[in-house]
Amino acid sequence: MFNNAMMKQAKKMQEKMKEAQEEIAKMETQGSSGGVNVRMVGGKTIEEVSVSENLFEQKEKSLLEKFIKEAVNDATAKADKIAQKKMKNVTGGIKIPGLF
């Protein structure tokens, strides 16, 4: 009986993990830096990049590159934080190797 109950619990957790992973794949995050805005889906795919007109007036390529990098990193960090929280809710805080 103990093994049967454990198997049911493991299966339930597996289903919740799958649901969380599907939610994570659909979630949108935004990052910004110095007039550059980035919108990502699933924490991996950049869907949109917008650049303020003011940055073009400065004509500093290296500054624009810096802001793009920082905006992407900001959106990625937000996505990672949300994903970790969702997975923590599913696993009850148990650390599972290879899972965030």
Features:
single chain; 100 residues; alpha+beta; rod-shaped
Q: How confident overall, as mean pLDDT?
A: 85
Point out poorly predicted stretches: none
Radius of gyration: 19 Å
What is the strand arrangement across the widest sheet?
A: 1-2-3
N-to-C order of helices and strands: HEEEHH
Please, how many helices? 3
The level of helicity is: 55-70%
Oligomeric state of the chains in view = single chain
Q: How would you sum up the major sheet?
A: 3 strands, antiparallel
Number of strands: 3
Terminal CA distance: 32 Å
Report strand %: 15-25%
* Apparent shape: rod-shaped
Class by alpha and beta content: alpha+beta
Tell me what you see in this structure.
This protein is an alpha+beta fold and 100 residues long. It is 62% helix and 19% strand. It is rod-shaped and about 70 Å long. The mean pLDDT is 85.
